[in-house]
Design a protein that fits this description.
Helices cover 28% and strands 28% of the residues. It is built from 3 helices and 5 strands. The protein has a 5-stranded mixed beta sheet with strand order 1-5-3-2-4, with helices on one face.
C-alpha cells in the first residue's frame, strides 16, 4: 500500500474508503497527527460490494464507506492506494460463498 496524493487517485466509478487505525498518526512519519485513509478504486458496483465486504472483515479498518467521486485533498488525511484488496476481496468472498459471481450477485 503506497501513499498517494488525492489528485493521483485513479479515476473510477466508485471508491471504497476506510480509515486505517493501525497506520494513522505514527510519530515521525507522514501520518503523524493525520488519518490514513485507504482507497480502492472500483469500476463496477459488484466489485465495490465485494471489496467493501473484505475491508469490513479487517479489524484495523474503521469508518468504511463507498463514494462515487474521487476523494479530495484534506490537510488531516493521508491517502494510501490499496488496489491489491480487489484480489483479496475475491479470495475472501470464496470463503463466504461457493462461487464468487453468485455471491456478488446475491444469489
Amino acid at each position: 500500500m503506497g501513499k498517494i496524493l488525492a489528485k493521483d487517485i485513479p479515476a473510477a466509478k466508485y471508491y471504497v474508503l476506510s480509515n486505517d487505525n493501525f497506520m494513522s498518526g505514527w510519530p515521525g512519519t507522514d501520518t503523524e497527527g493525520k488519518i490514513n485513509t485507504c482507497v480502492v478504486p472500483c469500476d463496477t458496483l459488484e466489485w465495490t460490494e465485494a471489496v467493501k465486504a473484505y475491508v469490513e472483515s479487517r479489524e484495523e479498518q474503521k469508518y468504511i464507506r463507498v463514494v462515487s467521486s474521487r476523494p479530495r485533498a484534506k490537510s488531516h488525511v493521508v491517502y494510501s492506494l490499496a488496489p491489491g484488496w480487489r484480489d483479496r476481496a475475491r479470495e475472501y468472498s470464496t470463503l463466504k460463498a461457493e462461487h464468487f459471481d453468485r455471491w456478488v450477485a446475491g444469489g
